[in-house]
Amino acid sequence: MSRRLPDFGALELLVGVDDYGSLSAAGRRLGIPQPNASRAIQRLERQFGVPLLQRRTSGSTLTPQGTVVAHWARIVLADTDKLLDVVQGLRVGHSAELTVGASMTVAEHLMPRWLGQLRGLHPEMTVHLEVYNSATVFEKVLNGEYTIGFVESPTVPQELHGIAVGRDELVVVVHPEHPWAGGKHPIPIAELASTPLVVREPGSGMRTTLDMALQEYDRAEPLLELGSAAAIRTSVLEGVGPAVLSTLAVRDHIASGALRTVDVEGLDLTRILRAVWRSPRKLDGPAGELVQLACGGSRNDSAATGSAR
């Protein structure tokens, strides 16, 4: 294997395959034509000496080796973003900084609007946003790496202050040809528990919410464990199996009929989205403003003091 540095654009594509479920989807997100994206990954495979993609007519997905490389590529790219942010701060003399961590659902669907509004209030500020599952966000807030975190986990560590900033609902989704799609009545919750599902990894808010809801039932082993909602959604669209996903991630596909929701007897997967931080209890400055923006701009004391958990 060559010891020269890999092409960072190819690493971004590889991480994109993990996030969005296929090479074509990753290329579209990054604005790279499909032939160029394929050539970039082929060059990376030759450099590393391992196959990174499984190439099928339905689309290219990660091999087991590709999944490992994508994990480390994500860390390398995150550190590169930090370097660029620091260089930009040095170049333009920025002094105000805010480091934010967010779980994937919040980061993909909600954070762009909130951070855009914050940028309007503080155009001189440098904001560092990092995306991990809820468990990792908790850890990084606790050790001081993040000023504030946004999570979707049903519980919050006692050492942290937290405030609800919104609600979300998880739904069972299937391919339109799945047997559950044509049912006229809700399925029993025990049937859902005993069915292999495509799920997120342990530690994600989505996985924790599902595990807590089904903890009293005999559980089947997961059909697949994937690192992003986008990858799970792609798997369901390709008929791999049923999954439980946020309505934020699948509402367009449900509206178009590409996915079908399945009602489950007695299952409530409503969850609270939270902002979390360490002391002091009263959160002020740009971090406090970000929380208020996430809460819809309300100026109540609970949003600033962490009286909700």
From TrEMBL:
Pfam families the UniProt entry points to: HTH_1, LysR_substrate
SUPFAM superfamilies: Periplasmic binding protein-like II (SSF53850), Winged helix' DNA-binding domain (SSF46785)
InterPro entries referenced in this protein's UniProt entry, alphabetically: LysR_HTH_N (IPR000847), LysR_subst-bd (IPR005119), WH-like_DNA-bd_sf (IPR036388), WH_DNA-bd_sf (IPR036390)
Superkingdom, taxonomy of origin: Bacteria
Keyword DNA-binding in annotation: yes
Keywords: DNA-binding, Transcription, Transcription regulation
HTH lysR-type domain residues: 6-63
Alphabetized GO MF terms: DNA-binding transcription factor activity; transcription cis-regulatory region binding
Family: Belongs to the LysR transcriptional regulatory family.
PANTHER family attached to this UniProt entry: HTH-TYPE TRANSCRIPTIONAL REGULATOR, HTH-TYPE TRANSCRIPTIONAL REGULATOR CYSL
Protein name listed in UniProt: Putative HTH-type transcriptional regulator
Lineage: Bacteria, Bacillati, Actinomycetota, Actinomycetes, Mycobacteriales
